[in-house]
Amino acid sequence: MERQNKAWTIFRYVTIAIGLFIVFFPIYSVLISAFKTQTEYYNSGLQLPHDWFNFDNFRKVFKVGRLGLGFKNIFIILVVSLAGNVLIGTMVAYALGRFDFKMKKPIMGMYLVAQVIPMITTQVATFQVIKFLGAYNEIYAPMLLYLGADVLQIVIYLQFVNNIPRDLDESAMVEGASLFKIYRSIIFPLLAPATATLIIMKTISIYNDFYTPYLYMPSRKLQVVSTAIYSFVGPNAAQINVISAGILIIFIPTLVIYLFLQRYIFAGVTNGAVK
Predict the structure, then answer these.
(1) Burial per residue of 174-212, b for 16 or more beta-carbon CB atoms within 10 angstroms, e otherwise
(2) Which top-level group of life is the source organism from (predicted)?
(3) What is the dihedral of CA 235, 237, 241, 244, to 10 degrees?
């Protein structure tokens, strides 16, 4: 029995060690590569850099890769996309949570179906629509694609909407408030915790997205942070040390957002379920 417990303990520690290695090895590799020259990178392998104060790669990312332009473009996309996404998501949840109509269940079903369809299978049709709208290679192409509310967003909002007493709506209607005023003055403010959660999750998702900006905004002047570092990838080789420096810079805002706002993420998801 004692031998079995010892074996189980060893197995657990080995499993944890493997898990930690899988998680932290890429971070270690990126960190040490960011401070190496090109020659040092190829000659030293996974050894520590000779000079931790070698910031040439970071300067190159901003000067040649124009990472500052990438931050500017992604900031504009985030502001417009999040504003529209929250507006559409709250309105959809308000309609589905408060009113009974014939197409209520089919609409919810379509959200679920759209969620399980692999995105890659709809890209040809989506690309044709974007091109038809004249949005291809324009900054509002990803904005249009990010505006739509997904099923997770609708579910979180619905949890909060269903927990708001209908008496508030009826009292407001007695006072002569319209449905839009009820949404604006009662429903929308009470959805603030869920909105905070979804803004954080959407911000990280849009910020890290490479595929959508790369496909719909190939122009260099429209690059975002995720596509800016791709300029250091050539047809035959890539400047991994410079790319690593860019990854570290791009990683900082995501890390700060997660560390300072993670409690809102979990609180927003769970609060609506227990109210």
Answers:
(1) eeebeeeebbeebbbebbebbbebbbbbbbbebbebeeb
(2) Bacteria
(3) 50
Could you give the CA distance from residue 249 to residue 225 in angstroms, rounded to a whole number? 9
Does the reported pTM lie above 0.70? yes
Other Cβ atoms less than 10 A from the Cβ of 98: the count is 16
| Rounded Cα–Cα distance for residues 228 and 67 (Å) | 6
CA 185 vs CA 14, 46, 94, 164, 179: distances in Å: 55, 58, 13, 13, 10
- Compute CA distances 203 → 75, 105, 199, 239, 270, whole Å: 10, 29, 6, 28, 20
Which distant-in-sequence residues (6+ apart) come within 8 Å of 98 by Cβ?
161, 166, 169, 187
Q: 191 phi and psi, to 5 degrees?
A: -90, 10
Q: 27-58 burial by CB neighbour count: b if 16+ within 10 A, else e? A: eeebbbbbbbbeebbeeeeeeebeeeebeebb
Cβ neighbours of residue 37 closer than 8 Å, sequence gap 6 or more: 54, 56, 241
Q: What is the mean pLDDT of each run of 10 residues along the chain (275 residues)?
A: 78 92 91 89 85 89 88 93 92 90 85 79 87 91 86 86 87 88 90 85 88 90 88 77 89 80 64 50
What residue type is assigned to position 221 of the chain? K
Give the separation between CA 156 and CA 268, rounded to whole angstroms.
8
For 238, the 3-state DSSP assignment is strand
Amino acid at 6: K
- CA–chain centroid gap for 27, Å, is 20
